[in-house]
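Sample 3 of the quickstart, ligand adenosine-5'-diphosphate:
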Amino acid sequence: MKTIGVLTSGGDAPGMNAAIRAVVRSGCENGFRVMGIRRGWNGLMYGDMYEMNLRSVSNIINRGGTILYSARSPEFKTEDGMKKAIEVCKEHNMEGVVVIGGDGSFRGARDLSLRGVPCVGIPGTIDNDIACCDYTIGYDTAMNTAMEMVDRLRDTTESHDRCSVVEVMGRRAGYIALNAGIACGATTILIPEVDFDFERDVIDRMKKTQKTGKRHFIIIVAEGVGGVAEMAKKIEAEMGVESRATVLGHVQRGGSPTVRDRVVASQMGYKAVELLKQGIGNRVVAMQKDEIVDFDIFEALNMKKSIDLDLYKMAHEISI
Ligand code: ADP
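Result:
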C-alpha cells in the first residue's frame, strides 16, 4: 500500500483541521495509508507520526488549531535536518507529503521535493499573504474574529466618546486590517503596503469627521505598521480625545472556522490528494477567482501579490 503523510507547519490557522480531515478521508478512500506527522517538519525529521484512519479525523472540522500540532523547525533548513527527514520517509515508504502552512513551509516542501519526496503545499495562514492564492485557509475566520472584537470595542468607545487604536494581525500584509477596517467603519486604516503620514492620515482625518459631529473613532493598524500605544498617546495629546490602544493578538488565530474556511480547506485537501495520486509533487494548491488550481512551488514562491488599492481608497472615502 502506498503511504502519504500530512503535516501542519508554521503559524496555525482555523481550518487547518478541515484540511487534515479532507486529506485523511480522501487519502484513505483512494487506498493510501495516511500518516499524521506531528509538529511540522520536526515530526518528519524525528519520525513522530501515527497512522490515521477515517475515524481519526471525526469531530475536528469545527475546531480551530491543528490536531497535528504545529512548530517552527530551524533544523529542517539544514542539510542534516533534510537528510533525517528523507531517511524517515524511506523508512515509512512515504511517497508523498501534504504540507499545510505558509511560504516558509512551502520552501521546505520545495527542498524535500527536489530530493525525491513529492510534496504538495496547502496555503494555511490567517494573513492571506501567499502570492499565488487569492485566499488562504484561516483568513476568513481571522477577519471575522477581528471584526467581532472591534465591534465590542466600538460599544465602549462610543459610550465614552473615545478613540480606539486597534492593532490587528498581519506582519507583512494588510488584508485583515483592510477588510476588518471596512467592516467596522474605521476612520483610518494603516497597512504595511501603503506609506502613511500620521498628521495627514490620522489627525486630519479625525478632525474632518469631528467637524461633522463624529465623537468616537476607530483606527485600525496592521501589526506590520505597529506603534499603537504611541499613536494613542499622540492622538490624545493632539486631539484632546481620550484614546486607548488595543492589540488583538493571537485571539485572531483561534476559534471555530467559518463556513468559507471549512469549505475551501476541504477542497484544497481533496485536491492535494488528487495530485499525489497521480504522482505529482512539488505543487502548491491555490485558489484563484474562486477556482481551486495548482502551481509549481518554485513558480508560486516567485509570484507577487498586491493589495487592492481601490478598496483601500474606497474605505477612506466612505469613513468620513
Ligand atoms: P510559515 O510556513 O507559516 O511561513 P515559517 O516561515 O516559520 O512559517 O516556516 C515554517 C517552517 O518551514 C520553518 O520552521 C522551517 O522548518 C521550514 N522552512 C522555512 N524556510 C525554509 C527554507 N528556506 N528552506 C527549508 N525549510 C524552510
